[in-house]
Design a protein that fits this description.
about 70 residues
Length: about 70
């Protein structure tokens, strides 16, 4: 799996968890941007676009993890 796809999936998941109230969206965005900048330091605009798109799409599908027993 390519980095772009992994970043998009991470942002999508974070967006869903944030929308459901499990994470703060701003913190998710910040951490994803930091990780992406470390992996691809010369593609800040592309990284930000992928993250914003993933967070927005994920927020349309809130994730409510079930408790494990």
């Amino acid at each position: 799996m390519a980095f772009t796809e992994k970043l998009n999936r991470a942002a999508f998941t974070a967006g869903g968890l944030a929308q459901a109230g499990h994470l703060a969206e701003a913190e998710c965005r910040s951490l994803l941007l930091q990780a992406a900048a470390h992996a691809r330091p010369h593609q800040a605009r592309r990284n930000a676009l992928i993250i914003e798109t993933g967070l927005r799409a994920g927020s349309a599908r809130p994730i409510h993890p079930k408790e494990r027993t």
